[in-house]
Design goal:
Layout (H helix, E strand, L loop, with lengths): L2 H26 L9 H5 L2 H9 L4 H12 L2 E5 L2 E4 L5 H4 L7 E2 L1 H4 L14 H11 L5 H6 L1 H20 L6 H18 L13 H19 L1 H9 L2 H7 L1 H21 L3 H5 L6 H7 L10 H32 L1 H14 L9 H4 L3 H14 L8 E2 L5 E3 L2 E3 L4 E3 L3 H4 L21 H4 L16 H18 L4 E2 L4 H4 L3 E3 L1 E3 L10 E2 L2
Parallel strand pairs: 2-7
Antiparallel strand pairs: 1-2, 3-4, 4-7, 5-6, 8-11, 9-10
């Protein structure tokens, strides 16, 4: 057979493979009778088009699918999505020991981190090592450190006021949350609050990683390949990749330096140092405490510990300052509860303030947090939803977006209405406040997040009664992309800015 004949046979064989695969997925696959677009059933590239080309918009397309097809939709060759708020606690139950969907979570880059761990049994072991650091008692021991760093933010804001400068709270809040989690994880801050750019370059690197995530989900090996390229080649091919690689190197170096630190100096701190304790404890087996895995875990702790809380503080401050009645009522409550603005109570006290608590809950609801659909896989048993029987090894997901913005549960869902949490029936609404997830995989840092939200928002509003917005509009705050977390437009210079009068 000559070269042309071989090429023709190869082409015919490849075409046959594609056609037979398409026929199987459309007509013979266990999900073939589930409703949804045929292109979504055929290939994950359908999702890739919306997430890679149209910048993280597949979750919004899924919403449109539900409008057309109903509460259960096939959103991928081996995945369904359910839109039914009453089913959320069933899917994400504490008794369900289901795996995460490996294809979906491949965009995290490395399954060695606890959050991205696929297997439920391995996750339980890794999560067990982290849980003690995020208990209410452990977070309480971090209070003095947290207040010290909040005071540093306040001082910078006061200095900006003296110079009549705008404060970019979009970055400032994230600088604060980075410094809090880095102090807890590494025993020292990354000093974001001291940076002239308020940590904007650091945020840019992480945002680059999140924007690359849809691409790495489609081609998982691409991320590992690009991380191994020389820096000059990364900068040539994709500057965002170079930013991400440098960020990983910096955190790896920080981890290595910590692990070589004199144990006496680590133990002398007022709070435990998470990365150190995990690396040298006997809670995890030896193969889970290698330096490579600990470094991956450190990167994960840093990312999970700063962005969501920083984003929530941004949303809360924007809406409070945008609504004079909300602002005034919150100020009155805080002035009564905190006579001395320099002495902010602990978060357990602040949690008892009804209007502040209503604002925190409404912030969590309207901001959502993780927009993504959090797919799970039951390896051995089918999953029942109404009359549908979903076969084993099928990915099944739900998005908090469609619950927390559901107009049947939360009328006027796009409006910031803290008063909805003060009504007599508000306890019934809390079932649908799923920002931190549910079940055995719910956010491990929920107690730390609440402590930061209460302490920071109370401090900023109480200390700066004349705080005013400087330019941002609803357009600047609009979530337009799902890079696991919902994100605003990537347009430099926008975001929450304020002036301190």
């Amino acid at each position: 057979m000559d070269g042309r004949g071989f090429a023709l046979v190869t082409l015919i064989g490849f075409a046959t493979y594609l056609i037979s695969g398409a026929i199987y997925r459309l007509f013979c696959h266990p999900l073939s009778r589930f409703p949804g677009p045929k292109l979504a059933a055929l290939t994950t590239l359908y999702e890739g088009y919306y997430d890679v080309i149209k910048a993280g918009s597949y979750i919004f397309q899924i919403g449109k699918m539900h409008d057309q097809y109903g509460p259960i939709v096939r959103v991928g060759p081996n995945e369904v999505h359910i839109l039914d708020p009453t089913y959320y606690d069933t899917l994400y139950s504490k008794t369900n020991r289901w795996d995460k969907y490996d294809w979906f979570y491949s965009m995290m880059g490395n399954p060695q981190a606890t959050f991205a761990t696929i297997n439920a049994d391995v996750h339980r072991i890794r999560r067990g090592a982290l849980n003690p650091f995020f208990s209410a008692q452990a977070v309480g021991r971090l209070r003095s450190t947290m207040l010290f760093l909040i005071d540093r933010l306040v001082t910078r804001m006061e200095n900006a006021a003296l110079r009549k400068e705008t404060v970019p709270l979009f970055y400032a809040y994230r600088a604060l949350t980075v410094d809090i989690i880095s102090e807890y994880a590494f025993g020292s801050t990354l000093q974001m609050l001291d940076r002239a750019d308020w940590g904007a370059s650091f945020y840019s690197a992480w945002r680059s990683l999140w924007q690359l995530s849809p691409l790495t989900r489609q081609w998982p090996s691409l991320f590992a390949f690009m991380m191994k390229l020389p820096q000059w080649m990364q900068e040539l091919l994709n500057p965002k990749t170079a930013e991400v690689a440098k960020m990983f190197r910096d955190v790896d170096q920080l981890t290595m330096e910590l692990l070589q630190t004199d144990p006496k100096s680590v133990k002398a701190k007022s709070h435990p140092t998470m990365v150190w304790e995990i690396a040298y404890s006997d809670v995890l087996p030896a193969h889970e405490r290698t330096r490579d895995r600990i470094s991956v875990e450190a990167n994960n702790l840093l990312a999970a510990g700063f962005e969501t809380t920083g984003a929530m503080l941004t949303v809360a401050t924007f809406h409070v300052l945008s609504n004079p009645n909300v602002h005034q009522r919150l100020q009155q409550e805080l002035e009564f509860a905190i006579p001395d603005s320099a002495k902010i109570p602990n978060h357990q006290v602040l949690e008892k303030l009804p209007y502040l608590s209503a604002i925190i809950k409404e912030t969590l609801r309207i901001a959502v947090g993780a927009y993504s659909r959090l797919p799970r896989v039951s390896p051995h048993e089918s999953i029942a939803y109404r009359e549908w029987v979903i076969p084993p090894n099928t990915a099944v997901g739900m998005s908090a977006l469609f619950i927390e913005h559901n107009p049947m549960i939360f009328p006027n869902p796009d409006s910031f209405l803290p008063e909805r949490w003060l009504r007599d029936d508000c306890r019934a609404l809390e079932r649908y406040l799923v920002t931190f997830g549910r079940g055995s995989r719910m956010c491990v840092g929920i107690n730390l997040a609440y402590a930061e939200l209460y302490a920071v928002l109370a401090t900023i509003i109480r200390r700066f009664p004349q705080l005013r917005l400087d330019g941002p509009t609803a357009y600047d705050m609009e979530i337009v992309s799902d890079y696991f977390a919902g994100m605003t437009r990537d347009e430099g210079g926008r975001g929450l800015k304020v002036r301190v009068n």
